[in-house]
Structures are given as C-alpha cells and as structure tokens.
Amino acid sequence: MSVEVIGIDHVYLAVRDLAASERFYDRVMGVLGFRKMAEPLHGEPHIHYYGRYFGFTIRPARLETPDHDPYAPGLHHLCFRVPDEGAVDQVASELRAAGIEASIPRRYPEYAPDYYATFFSDGDGVRLEVCNFWEARRRRMADWEAAESAPAPAHRPDTKRGRMTRGRR
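Request: output the structure for the sequence above.
Response:
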C-alpha cells in the first residue's frame, strides 16, 4: 500500500546573491500572497516565504559552485498554480509593474488545451512559471481513483524509457 502525498511542504533555493534575490523574491512572493520571515538556520541567513499551502525559502549558495543550468541535473523550473486565467493575467501584470520581466500570458496547447501561463526567471536563471488550474489537473484532483487510469494530457508516458516526459520548456 502506498502513502498519498498531499502536497509539497517547502522548496529551498540556493542563490548567489542573497540580498539581490531577496529583493526579487519580495516582489514575486508579495504578488503571490506569501508572507515573509527572515530567520537564520544553522548560523546561515535564510529568507522564508510562506503561504497557506507551502513554504519557499532562499539561502546563500556555497562559494565557487557552478551557476544554475535548467538543463543540467536538478531543478528545471518551478510552477505556481493559481485558480484561473484571470489570476494568471493579474500576476503577470503585477510582476511587470514590479519590474519583473514576465512573459505575456497565453495558452500552451502543447501541454493541455486550456493550459495558460506566464514565465519569468530570477537573477540566478531559475525558471519560474505561474499557470492556471487547468481542467485535466482539476478533474484528476477531484476524482483521483477514476483519473488513475486516464492519461494526463501534459504528461505522456515515454514507453521507450519507462518514465514520464513533458514538452521541453
């Protein structure tokens, strides 16, 4: 019997310049409704942003480590889900008003017919996205047992390699 994961509790990002990243993420996380708490952990500064559903923390990267590469092993991108397309539009508009270069929101039918998103990156090149709560994901969440046998439009089985794939972003 498996244990169901009910959510992502927190995400930690190591950043090259903590002060610059804090200014960037203060704007992003403020638009997304997160609250902030700066508290050291193990003697190192950490900036914690927290929302109703999960936490997001930035911490200093170690010196002399390579820069982030979304196509190297590790994090490719992080996507925040909002209720609908109107919320995506609002987030993109508020991010741009805050000086963040967010893409114009649009549909991405290669992921799902109603997939609607905006994209932007932080100062370390970490790719960020805000997308709507698209219908296939909503149905899967509402009726997990029935959805278990149905394929998900944005995640296709790669039968040659036995893993899940997603369109390259």
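Residues 155-169 have pLDDT under 50 and may be disordered.
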